[in-house]
Amino acid sequence: MAVQNTIKVAARRREATQGFWERAYIFEVIRGLWITTKHFVSNLYYHILKLFGIIKTHPLTPTIQYPEEHRLLAPRLRTLHRLARREDGSPRCVACMMCETVCPALCIKIVAEEVENPYIEKRPQSFDIDIGRCVFCGFCVEACPEDAIRMDTGILEIASYSRAGMVLDIDTLLALRPTAMRTDKEVDELQKQLLE
User: 72 lies in a domain?
Assistant: First the structure.
């Protein structure tokens, strides 16, 4: 009740400080149209002058021809997931279920199996990520104690004609490579250098 009264008092104060033209929004709409038209005409003018070679140094509005040109990506940008490999080629994942547990979208499903290797208790029999449900928060990357899951592929164009096509299995995740074709060993060395 008190909150509603406070909101009503604040609304009355706002109306008291606004003039007629501000409450009618006519002037504000005309002002917005004027600013938009001014930017459009000035950009059109400078692009025409640059097209005919009259000016060469004036900075223009950057236009990226998307399918042919790509924007530079920030190095920390979270893109499509991938699973890192050990030096022998096996998945680095030990199926500890930390990423599956911490995922807020519940899009990671792992089925574990035992391994004969005495240094590794288990490994993933299946590791599926439903990209259609993923929110790309990066919690799975932060939670992984083995640094097995990474989001450094640089792939932003993710599309499919069906929901089943949005589910990435373990083979697909292992086949993906990091940006700039760095190996997992090189990425590990870069991370160590950053921590020092």
Answer: no
Provide the 3-class DSSP secondary structure of residue 17.
helix
Residue 187: domain span: 82-195
Instruction: Report the alpha-carbon distance of residue 132 to residue 181 in Å, rounded.
Output: 26
- Tell me how many domains the chain contains: 2
108-114 sheet: strands from edge to edge: 108-114, 122-130, 167-168
User: What is the SS3 assignment for 145?
Assistant: coil
Please give the model's pTM, rounded to 2 decimal places. 0.64
> Residue 125 in contact with residue 111, Cβ under 8 Å?
yes
Average pLDDT over every residue of 61-86: 83
Q: Are residues 180 and 121 in the same domain?
A: yes
Element spanning 124, H or E:
strand 122-130
Given a contact cutoff of 8 angstroms between Cβ atoms, the answer to whether 26 and 19 are in contact is no
* Residue partners of 184: CB distance under 8 A and separation at least 6: 84, 85, 92, 178
Across 51-75, average pLDDT? 78
Q: Are residues 190 and 107 in the same domain?
A: yes
Q: Quick one: pLDDT band at residue 124, thresholds 50, 70, 90? A: very high
Is 120 contained in some domain? yes
